[in-house]
Specification:
The chain is about 15% helix and about 40% strand. By secondary structure, the chain is mainly beta. It has a single domain, classed as Electron Transport, Fmn-binding Protein, Chain A (Pnp Oxidase, Chain A, Roll). Strand 2 (about 15-20) and strand 3 (about 30-35) form a beta hairpin. The relative contact order is 0.19. The structure holds flavin mononucleotide.
Length: about 190
């Protein structure tokens, strides 16, 4: 018998996305976002509180980067989620990170992250004090070390992490357990 439990939404796994932006003065910022997802193969969406510096930067520039949080960058990811660029002069430097300007968008690429997507805003919907941002991914930058022999991202090498909102912890994405568009054929 199933129980009705006292829980918020559980849509596991939630991502750990690091949103990179520049402000009007060219100071880089980065924030941690779990409320975001891929929409098809070329676009993504984010839900960002309008009070964040990142949100103001995205409204100003219309461009940003999204890096994938990993086991190796976990401490930095969490820092980006608990300190605001509105309060710290240079959050990226404070975290011990380094950023270079993307070649495609006016936004920083944080060098410590092995996988980064370069994004252009399509639209921003304001709702309940948040910005619901839809963006097009115009480029993907990857360190060669995380690629397999076919040039595809290998999750075992990337070691992406997920935000567990039930326990406020980070988890590593685990092993391959099946083949998509394939294993279900056993029931056809
Ligand atoms: C695990 C985690 C997930 C988060 N996800 C979001 C999110 O999806 N949307 C959001 O608006 N804030 C989210 N935050 C909070 C922001 O990352 C945080 O307020 C940050 O300091 C904002 O930085 P900024 O003001 O420099 O942009 C998250 C924080 C953590 C630790």
């Amino acid at each position: 018998m199933k129980e009705t439990i006292k829980s918020k939404i559980v849509m596991a796994p939630l991502p750990v996305l690091i949103i990179g932006t520049y402000d009007a003065a060219g100071i880089p910022d980065a924030m941690n976002a779990a409320w975001g997802t891929q929409i098809g193969y070329e676009e993504l969406t984010l839900l960002l509180d309008s009070g964040h510096k990142t949100t103001a930067n995205i409204r100003e520039k219309g461009q940003f980067t999204v890096a994938i949080g990993t086991v190796d960058t976990l401490v930095m990811c969490d820092y980006f989620g608990i300190v605001s660029g509105n309060k710290v002069a240079d959050k990226i430097a404070q975290a011990g990170a380094t950023a270079v300007k993307s070649g495609r968008v006016d936004a920083p690429v944080i060098e410590q992250f092995p996988l980064t997507m370069e994004c252009e805003v399509i639209k921003i919907d304001d709702y309940k004090g948040d910005a619901r941002i839809t963006a097009k991914v115009v480029g993907v930058l990857a360190d060669p070390e995380i690629l397999n022999e076919h040039g595809k991202v290998d999750y075992s090498k990337l070691r992406p992490i997920s935000f567990d909102s039930e326990t406020n912890t980070y988890r590593e994405i685990g092993a391959v357990v099946g083949r998509a568009f394939h294993d279900g054929t056993a029931l056809k």
